Amino acid sequence: MSNSYELKAEARAQVGKGSARELRRNGLIPAVIYGDRKDPVSIALSRKDVTKKIHDGSFMTTLVTIDVDGTKHNVLPKDYQLDPVRDFLMHVDFLRVSKNTQVTVDVPVHFINEEKSPGLKRGGVLNIVRHTVEFQCPANAIPDSITVDLTGLELGAAVHISSITLAEGVEPTITDRDFTIATIASPAGLKSDDNAAGDDDAAEDGAEEAGDEE
Length: 214
Known about the structure:
Blueprint: E1 5-11, H1 17-25, E2 28-35, E3 38-46, H2 47-56, E4 64-68, E5 71-82, E6 89-96, E7 102-112, H3 118-121, E8 125-128, E9 132-138, E10 146-149, E11 158-160, E12 171-172, E13 180-185, H4 188-213
Parallel strand pairs: 1-4, 2-6, 7-10
Antiparallel strand pairs: 1-3, 2-3, 4-5, 5-6, 7-9, 8-13, 9-12, 11-13
């Protein structure tokens, strides 16, 4: 799991579009902390600080401590909105968490040892079916990523979720099937060559059978 970090925030006395526009003009963004059977707290955060954390990666799977005027809240980012035209940060939602909180998160998939896959060496293509996998897990045990080792995989091989080692308490939300994460697909040229070879073999077999009948 990624290391947690802290953000400074101030409570918002006023909410609404006018207040939010004023915050953005001053380099801040509106945000809300909710959940854990407590009242929501409207806050303002530095847009620069939060944007940097988003660009650093793992923003949605990293716990955050938000210091609101001296009161600290342990939270997990649940959503954020970007301006559809200018693409800058507009708003963030944070979920309060405790040691018993279960969360649902999308975890990125990383692939290693591509150079050790015989199928890829033959010109095969890594066909990524899922770039992320949705898991349910304790809020304090969110994995940074899951790792797929491609060592030894031949053409036509498939990697399923059952082949991935997961930490205790981390479970995929899809439970009714052993779903595919990636495959090693044959390149189009190799498929054509294989088909042509198969046709030649079939033709030779046919000629031999005809000779036997004569």
